[in-house]
Amino acid sequence: MRSKDHTIREPLFRMVERDDMTKGRIARVRTISILLAVIAGSLLFVILGKNPLKAYADMFYGAFGTAVLSQETIKKTVPLLLTAIGISYAFRMRFWNIGGEGQILMGAIGASYWGFFYAGRIPKIPLLAIMILTAMVLGGLYGLLPALFKAKWGTNETLFTLMLNYIALYVIVYLENGPWKKKGSSFPRMPMIDRKLFLSTVFGVHWGWIVAICLVIFTWIFFSRTKSGYEISVVGESNNTARYAGINVGRVFRRTMFLSGAIIGLVGFFQVAGADHTLTENTTGGVGFTAITVAWLAHMNPFGMGIVALAIAVLERGCSQIETTMKVPASVADILIGIILFFMLGCEFFVRYRLIICGRGKEAKV
Amino acid sequence: MNVIIKLLIAAVIAGTPLLLGALGEIMTERSGNINLGVEGEMYMGAVAAVAAGFFYNSAGGTNGITAVLLSGLFAFLFGALGALIYAFLVITMRANQNVTGLILTIFGTGFGNFIGALIPVRTGKTLVVSDTTKAMYNNVGPFNWMVYMSVLLALFLGYFLYFTRPGLSLRAVGENPATADQAGINVTKHKYLATVLGGGICGIGGMYISMVSQNGNWVDNCVGGYGWLAVALVIFASWNPFRAIWVSLVFGGLKIMRLYVRLPIPSQFYDMAPFIVTIVVLVITSMSGSKEKSQPKSCGQNYFREER
Question: Are the Cβ atoms of A15 and B306 closer than 8 angstroms?
């Protein structure tokens, strides 16, 4: 930036990293960002010629209006939250597990294999246990694979896990066209699993939500109170520091990614046995990707992830409500979620940095 | 012989949107930004192209060339707009690149399907361009004009990156922004320009899908994973626009091969193959430690001068 007389122009703003991240400020910045996002969403409705207040009211009704609607909302929250928890294990050690979609699908494949072929041959409770175990092991192994290469050769895990998603997807397409296709069906689709295997419900929602709550608490304890959890955080801060401290970084990579994938594989089990009762290409419904933003925006805090996951589920339910009541295409949900997440992501800046307007004599203080 | 030529032609036609998406992402990643929002940018470009043609035709416009130019312009602008949101969040607000890119994919996919559903509701007409406009995308010689343009663009970008001064600067920014900054290169400007222009190119890739592959109709979820395949292609092409040309031919070939060559394996394995070979390439480059063929070094990390 040179002007004609070769003086260097001062930038308008200077950014300084904050060293005082108080809870109060974080809460304040977040609240403002969500308000801004809600206003931006309202503008969208105004442009569409709809009353934003009515839209939000309808959305709220769609998410919590009746007991059944609330149950649906919780049903959507469970996979999102569980996946986010699984992903947070990897993210804590700065391992970019973008492969949630694939790990869910592998878990779902493992669970439905037993559901399709062994229903009635093994009693329900042991069979469910086997399904859970298979789902977790398959999901875990699918997560372990990129970790092996990362630990050995430093292979880029972002791209590796991303590619694995699509391999799992086409495995499912293959199964539903070939070996696992429903007999006598003209469409490529799989049969339903046996009715007896449907998960029992607690307050109208399959018991996955209890597991999710338990995992939230477990994860919180794991990272704040145990040595293994602390090791993961140290590896995340700096691989070299971890090595100096005598931590086997490769082992932490492998162990944690197996754990991460196993938790996400569990989501596959719940989707098959609790929600869809069958296996399709849409079993994940994009949860693997959305959960990444959930984990990140909650700063990997398990309770925070619960709140963000619930908020996104509310938006999705709410938008399918306004599709019928206000004749707005349901894909508006993705736009609204995108806008809100963009705003929340942007506001993180103001949590971490502050702006100083140059030339106001303020910098003398710094 | 005839079959091979047919196969090649079909591979080129199927590979072109991948080439465009990959070229956009190569530019973006060369500046040190890994943008996982390619899929979203392609959706935005795809719907903008059809909508531009549709509104021009509805307003009584009949000139095919104007319609094409408008489609191209708006596809580019909307792809660039998506990339601008990404660039602002990542470069100025220092948000995480992976997360921002994924949100852009969610947003862009929603944007495409939403606008594509909204226009028919509002106007009471199907979202499709007129026959004259469609005819503009007919083959001239073996291919339509967008194929030729994509190859020329790839050659130009390859020339730009490897044989010009600004191209060298851009690569320097992607490899080591701190050093580039010290050498007097404006890091922020390079990152913004490369990311936004790259997004525009991805938008044109979306235009190819809606205008050529879908013949000027809007079809819900039409991009359907092409954006992710483009991200894979970037790896296989080792961030080199020249190499992207033949790699897109290979990927395009894998996409259509099952129609021409019957092997005793299920067709889904053809769909899977690009992703498997990409992983193999990824692993081999990391094993050999080749710097030239690996991802630009600063990819994924944001540059903050004060943190040096």
Answer: yes
